[in-house]
Amino acid sequence: MLRRTSFLLLSHACGNAGFLHGFGQETRTGSDKHKSRDKQKLAKTPPPIAVVAGTVFRDPGFAFPGARIRLEPAPEPATSHNVRGKVKVKKMEAVSDQRGEFAFRVPPVPMRYNLNITAAGHLPDQREVIVAGEGRQDVFVTLKPAP
Q1: Tens-digit pLDDT profile for residues 84-126
Q2: How far apart are CA 10 and CA 23, in angstroms?
Q3: Are the C-beta atoms of 66 and 122 separated by less than 8 Å?
Q4: Which of 46, 80, 110, 130 is the most exposed place for a label (fewest CB within 10 A)?
């Protein structure tokens, strides 16, 4: 918070009649220094990311909460120019929410991923997702009941 200190120091005794000292000078309080530092931290742009997100459904098209989703890097073909050696990608797991939705934040580099979806009493499903850079890749899966 900025405080405006406007005090007049008329120094008649020193012969400086009409001398104004400190008029309109602004001072900063200690808490202001921290606030401006916090604003600088917030102003920094976040690192780029890619998102693999989707929704799990069950027949006849209802949302499927509680499905387990596992995202892992796909095996590289011999001719691939994948950047896996430069970027560490961990296997990630999630559980679909009440609306059947899930999301993973991944590095924004060209990469292929395998998405494995499982749930009790249903047949598992697998999808391949290709991330080409920043952005969002949406996946929609319908799990079939186990026989």
Answers
A1: 556 677 899 999 999 999 999 999 999 999 999 999 999 999 9
A2: 11
A3: no
A4: 46
| pLDDT tens per residue across span 11-66 | 344 444 444 444 444 445 555 555 666 666 666 787 889 999 999 999 888 999 99
* CB-CB neighbours of 11 under 10 Å: 13
Dist. CA 85–CA 6, nearest whole Å? 63
Dist. CA 39–CA 37, nearest whole Å: 5
Residues 29 and 56 in one domain: no
Q: Compute the distance between CA of residue 39 and CA of residue 124 in angstroms, rounded to an integer.
A: 47
For residue 41, the surrounding DSSP H or E stretch is helix 30-43
Pair 58, 114 in one domain: yes
- Note the maximum CA span of the chain: 104
For residue 81, being part of any structural domain is answered with no
CB atoms within 10 A of CB 64: 20
Please tell me the pTM assigned to this model. Answer: 0.64
